Amino acid sequence: xxxxxxxxxxxxxxxxxxxxxxxxxxxxxxxxxxxxxxxxxxxxxxxxxxxxxxxxxxxxxxxxxxxxxxxxxxxxxxxxxxxxxxxxxxxxxxxxxxxxxxxxxxxxxxxxxxxxxxxxxxxxxxxxxxxxxxxxxxxxxxxxxxxxxxxxxxxxxxxxxxxxxxxxxxxxxxxxxxxxxxxxxxxxxxxxxxxxxxxxxxxx
Amino acid sequence: xxxxxxxxxxxxxxxxxxxxxxxxxxxxxxxxxxxxxxxxxxxxxxxxxxxxxxxxxxxxxxxxxxxxxxxxxxxxxxxxxxxxxxxxxxxxxxxxxxxxxxxxxxxxxxxxxxxxxxxxxxxxxxxxxxxxxxxxxxxxxxxxxxxxxxxxxxxxxxxxxxxxxxxxxxxxxxxxxxxxxxxxxxxxxxxxxxxxxxxxxxxxxxxxxxxxxxxxxxxxxxxxxxxxxxxxxxxxxxxxxxxxxxxxxxxxxxxxxxxxxxxxxxxxxxxxxxxxxxxxxxxxxxxxxxxxxxxxxxxxxxx
Lengths: 204, 303
What we know:
- The complex is a heterodimer.
- Chain A is α+β, with helices and mostly antiparallel strands.
- Chain A has six helices and six strands, in the order H-E-H-H-H-E-E-E-E-H-E-H.
- In chain A, a hairpin with an 8-residue loop joins strand 3 and strand 4 (142-150).
- Chain B has a four-stranded parallel β-sheet with strand order 2-1-3-4, covered by helices on one side.
- Chain B has two domains: 30-180, Nitrogenase molybdenum iron protein domain (Rossmann fold), CATH 3.40.50.1980; 189-301, Rossmann fold, CATH 3.40.50.
């Protein structure tokens, strides 16, 4: 003989309510875990207090000059690789290379005064630096484009490094080691690149 | 004896000739085939490799890449290339579906054109968020950075041609730089201080940044997505509040939204090219960037 349990409509409603609540909790937990994992994938290495992100931490003028410096860095690196020496800021102006080229972009972004302040050599190694100061736009920084790690006897420097100083007339210390620059008020710009964005989107 | 030596020479010459033909045939077969997703990448790669490699568009030229759904022919083409150059940051999502469908996921090498490009956010109000703009190819400087990146990566695949690719890439960069310089001279006489512009599509931040212009509003709420009536009303209010005088519509898509905005706000409408429609050609990027630059100059002059 089969036994049947008859539930009142009220108890059936309660059961449905419980199921709905359990589903809501499961979905909410899933969303939190997904968001946490996704957010984790989106993160670049955390910034140190002497670093600034190129995407979210720069004003309009600083961001425009930083973007131009990244491209200029490539071209200057090629020029050094081809000719062995480092072009002056004046030479970079003549080959139309932003942000050194004194065009409307240069004027609109503060008429920054660029100088080659040190040059690594085949014999002595060292860093090469281009300093941009005296920008006249509100909130504009000073800029330092560095070519790092040229070892003695090496043909070229292999690492581009960009720093800003919130003082548009910021001075560069005698050495361009990170700790000296930080002590002099400079911040290293960490690029948010296409590679970072691809990592954020695809997680690989 | 002399006759025998003569025959031997002829035989050796014939064999050598055959060997050379075989090697040449092998080399011809071994030509690198580089797939590309978007028109600017076709132009970039073609200018870098010249006639040393084949450049293969993966999708047809006359389709809108926003929301494109892969077709069987695309999958066939993806099966027949050695490497694909991709935008990879949101403008060619279709390629990842195509590669997956071709069974070459994790096997087919990809060149991420934007790997070393410093990205910037979409202009205008994006609800307080900073959203990455994937249109790095509608630009001059960011385009040059992509040319350098592609030349470097293709050179790694074909080290014997690396120097030629690097040289071609740099020569092409000079052409792009000259194009930009020409525009800068053209606009020198026009003040940009009170130039307030909106765009229909969030595609032009890199271009505007490089020319020192700013975007006050974007009509599309998200990339490739038309606004709802409520969102459009809000954008129209923003355009009025920001005293925008010019709106840039799309040459290839965008419907008649620009007319609506013009009617409601009185702004002047100009059309920019997204460089993602029509035949794939080596000079497409230069031709359409020149048109864009001339349009910007006209908009500034009429301000």
